[in-house]
Amino acid sequence: MRGSGVGGLFGAVDDATGNSWFEFAARAGHAVSGILHILIAYVIVRIAVGDGGNADQSGALSTVAGTTGGTVALWVGAGAFVAMALWRLAEAAIGVHATEPNGPDDEGASSLLDRGKALSLAVLYFAFAWTAVRFAIGDGTSSGRENAGLSARLMGSGLGKTVLMVVGIVILCVGAYHVYKGVSKNFMDDLTIADNAAVQTTGLIGYVAKGLVLAGAGILVGVAVVNADPSKATGIDGAVKTLGTAPAGQILLFIAAIGVATYGIYAFVMARYARM
């Protein structure tokens, strides 16, 4: 990634992003994300056949924790997420890669938006790392239960309900953006390869599927606030399980599993070909 920092801290950050080992570690974050999405798809299949489970990151990490060498894998995954979070922080500080290979656009609203997105992703990856560490030390809990508990506390006040409604709208918008990015194939701008039919198909299916699941989670947060029912605000896991109660729910769950797994496969493409 080419940065615009000159001297001091920005210069150090710029130099760090030119380190091949730092880039390798950051790319590993995409690979770990891919593994987690495939595991979430596996949990969705289990829910479809009646075996239960949590169809979110906590469910995926719990699956890893229960395997031989799972603790080591969780620590490695946490390290990869931290590296990706630090990379995103660097992008927020010195500029994000451009959609063209000529370098970043350091001016204008587009650059500010890219920096804001990079900062948001940094926070998200730090949260992923923290969750992985908690499971590695045996302190992991269901994200759905934590979300429901937090929602119940927030619903105790008018301000809390407003915050929850805003969160639901934000999640819905993020989901809609994923769908748009998939349908428009704008995700190809993030890659160093072009005109690859297999990658385009994988990204389209993956982004649309994840977007729909996120949108469903956002809608459920709004429903939880309106109905004063915090049990509905359980995130992606709640959205998936609600989908399973719909007519032909089992078929819809299998389709969702395929879509989420496809996003996981696309994450491996990102690990290899993402512009960084």
UniProtKB/TrEMBL annotation:
Domain DUF1206: 28-94, 120-184, 205-273
Statement: the UniProt record of this protein carries the keyword Transmembrane: yes
InterPro entries (UniProt xref): DUF1206
Keywords annotated in UniProt: Membrane, Transmembrane, Transmembrane helix
Keyword Membrane: yes
Pfam families according to UniProt: DUF1206
TM helices/strands, residue ranges: 28-49, 61-87, 118-137, 158-180, 251-271
Protein name from the UniProt record: DUF1206 domain-containing protein
Protein species of origin: Williamsia maris
